[in-house]
Specification:
Radius of gyration: 34 Å
Shape: rod-shaped
Largest sheet: 7 strands, antiparallel
Low-confidence stretches: none
Number of domains: 1
Mean pLDDT: 92
Distance between the termini: 81 Å
Structural class: mainly beta
Helix content: 10-25%
Number of strands: 12
Oligomer: single chain
Order of helices and strands: HEEEEEEEEEEEE
Strand content: 35-45%
CATH class: Mainly Beta
Length: 156
């Protein structure tokens, strides 16, 4: 009986060797999630110059320049500027200044100069120009000395 079982097993083995092995497949699924995100990288700081009537200190005045920031985003974010909170003025300047930050963007998104938040819904990269204007009212004028103000560009 033992040799009969061995003979049957050997016969089946020889019979199977002549046939192709049956193939099998299985799908492997991959999932991923990209959250809304953006990066801001400062390219240049801005420069403010004074107007001929000494009532405006601005990056828009002749000789002034905007600060530039590179923005890269997945979309689904909002771009804005915060009100100016940090300033340095010469001690001789004792009158109030109204600081107005604005920005515009060119590249994947076209944003006309604004001080308001702008929704960015699509991915892409832009060069953002950030401007700042300080103004004096009435008979007040900018004094001699160094001025500095910080504008926070926000992407969230």
């Amino acid at each position: 009986m033992k040799s009969f079982g061995t003979a049957i097993g050997a016969t089946l083995l020889v019979a199977c060797m002549g046939q192709a092995a049956s193939a099998t497949t299985q799908n492997v699924i991959f999932n991923g999630t990209v959250s809304p995100t953006c990066t801001l990288v400062i390219a240049t700081n801005g420069t403010m110059t004074v107007s001929p009537d000494l009532q405006s200190l601005s990056s828009h005045n002749s000789g002034g320049s905007a600060g530039t920031v590179t923005l890269t985003t997945t979309g689904g974010v909002s771009l804005s500027v915060d009100p100016v909170t940090t300033t340095t003025v010469p001690s001789a300047d004792t009158t109030s200044t109204t600081w107005t930050p604005t920005y515009s963007a060119a590249g994947a998104h076209s944003i006309v100069e604004t001080g308001s938040a702008t929704a960015i819904t699509t991915p892409g990269a832009d060069l953002v120009s950030v401007n700042l204007a300080g103004t004096k009212s009435g008979s007040n004028r900018f004094s001699n000395g160094n001025y500095q103000a910080t504008v926070t560009l926000r992407c969230e």
